[in-house]
Amino acid sequence: MKQVRRLKIFEKNRHAPTPPCSLTAESAQPEQARACFKKPTMRSLNRSFKCVAGKRSEAFMTRLRKRLLAFLVSMIPAIGFATTPTVAVVSMFYSPDGSSIAYAGINDIGQIVFSTVKNNSYLRQSDGTITPISFPAATNGTSARSINNSGEIVGSYYTQGGGRGFIQNPDGTYVDLGPLLASAVNNSGTVVGTQSNPVVIQTDFIRDSFGDVTSFDVGFLPVPAGINDLGQIAGTYCKYSLCTYGAGGTGAFIRNADGSAITNSGLNRLGALNGLPANPVNPTDTFSLYGINNAGDILVGASIRPPAGSCGSYFLLHQDGTLDCLLVPLPAGDISVALLGLNNNGQVVGSAGNLANNQGFIGTYSASSSPAVAVRSGVLAHIAAGGGWTTTLSVVNASASSIDINVVLHADDGSPLSLPVTTTQLGLVQTFTGSSVGTTMGPNSTFIISTDGQAGSATEGWADVLSSGSVGGFAVFQFTPQSGSSPEGTAPLQTRFPSSMILPYDNTGGHVMGVALANLSGTSADITATIWDDTGSQLGSQTIAVVGSGHTSFVLPDLLPLTAGKRGILQFQNTSGGSLTVLGLRFSSFGTFTSVPSILTQ
């Protein structure tokens, strides 16, 4: 059944430096002229919530968490499985406070947040560096639970008055969520968790990137474990007030972004895979969910100790109901292992240890439904937003299979370019602010991204399209003046990435060319521009420096005066051999413009 996929927005509200003057500047029309584009100011919306967390509820939940943790650790398998392990441990780390790891989350970059049973929290970078996380107002500890690709961290902090939720922004500043105890955050900045009142934690919440909060209820003491970029949530709840784990008292839930439940036949087979009979009435009673990734894969843990030689206590449950065992080879001397989180790149984070020692680990899994790797499939040499300029990019999946795509926006200096964008897919229109937009495209479908043209000043950059399959597409550039008609031009999505390209130019008869150039490599490059006129005579050459993943644009006669009043061709050559992309717009004296396609060299 088709599902409307919620979009992924990365690098939310990260601002790039003010770019230099742009090609979308004066040709023959003053309002389109040589103006320096400034990045529009983005609104930051935060809502305050008048709720008070009670001491009784937090004390109760603290005891419950510790009992549950102790129970799960005691129930995980011992050494001696006959089945070949499917998780390869790639690195291990110790908690600086020497205690056991209770919660952990890992993003796609390999950054990990983890908290211990002493309510101390830490951030582990991909290079192994570990730094503490502590909410400024915390007096009784901080529990970090999840981190997204932008570096936003969510969790709870504790005082004498109880627990409160928090968001730690990438710049180190904090947002106090009050009684909203956060447990997970996705790449669009949507946070999920439990919502407390003075009596007991009783409902779940969803807080979007604008600060708007909605509540939902799936049972007694619900605990959302994860939210993916499609807005799907996975977690565990108690069916009865005693919350008797392993005795018919717990349930697992999977929830779509629209609030509907996801039915997964694989939950019915978890018991049988674990060496136990499946419970036909309450098949999820003895299992907990620990996270969900963008492929819909769910990390599931069993609350019952499996018999020797069985599948184990952890599984990867796929959307189609199939299951993979996740067995971990235990380090020497360790008697238990726990998997605590997963990301979109086939990595898991967990803990292993014994009564005297506990350490965390990062592992990779070889699951049958691991997410497909996205690679560069298209580029657009120029995007313009604001100051009357709108860029609308249409990406087309003409294949018979679904693919994952991610459109990444880069500023002139190569940094992420965060912009307000409107997306359209399957009739669903959504508006976000971010530097990366991702989704899953069905067969023969189109995904549309449009920048905002209403900002007072214009911003520019380029777009990189990453996908798990081949795509095509085009962009429409539109300028809306204060009066008169709105001219527009169209440029195809470039799907080949050479180191040399030819661009025809025409600066005759009142026309003037604008050129955009992007360096597709991650290192700085010198781009040589060689100029010929329409008779084939070489007029000269000039070098243009562009930073790694950077962009530049210019009015052609300004930067290359030899082209003034002439027509011909330009060859752009990356002298270091890296890939590039180039685009031209030809403006008329009437204020209209059209794109000039580039030509790939052989």
Describe this structure in words.
Strand 8 and strand 9 (162-168) form a beta hairpin. Helix content is 5%, strand content 45%. Strands 29-28-31-26-33-34 form a 6-stranded antiparallel sheet, with no helix packed on it. The protein is built from 3 helices and 43 strands. It folds into 2 domains: 8-43 and 372-600, no CATH class; 57-365, Neuraminidase (6 Propeller), CATH 2.120.10.30. It is mainly beta and 602 residues long.
Whole-number radius of gyration?
27 Å
Q: Can you tell me the CATH topology of the largest domain?
A: Neuraminidase
Tally of contiguous helical segments: 3
Q: So, CATH architecture of the largest domain?
A: 6 Propeller
Q: What is the overall shape?
A: elongated
Structural class: mainly beta
The helix content, as a percent range, equals under 10%
Short description:
Helices cover 5% and strands 45% of the residues. It has 602 residues and is mainly beta.
Topology:
Elements: E1 8-10, H1 55-75, E2 87-93, E3 101-106, E4 112-116, E5 121-124, E6 130-133, E7 142-147, E8 153-159, E9 162-168, E10 174-178, E11 180-185, E12 191-195, E13 203-207, E14 213-216, E15 220-227, E16 233-238, E17 250-255, H2 270-273, E18 287-292, E19 298-302, E20 314-317, E21 323-325, E22 336-342, E23 347-353, E24 358-365, E25 375-385, E26 389-397, E27 403-410, E28 419-425, E29 428-434, E30 436-441, E31 445-451, E32 459-467, E33 472-479, E34 488-492, E35 500-506, E36 512-519, E37 525-533, E38 538-546, E39 551-555, H3 556-559, E40 567-574, E41 580-587, E42 593-596, E43 599-600
Antiparallel strand pairs: 1-30, 2-24, 3-4, 4-5, 5-6, 7-8, 8-9, 9-10, 11-12, 12-13, 13-14, 15-16, 16-17, 18-19, 19-20, 20-21, 22-23, 23-24, 25-32, 26-31, 26-33, 27-30, 27-32, 28-29, 28-31, 33-34, 35-40, 35-43, 36-39, 36-41, 37-38, 37-40, 41-42
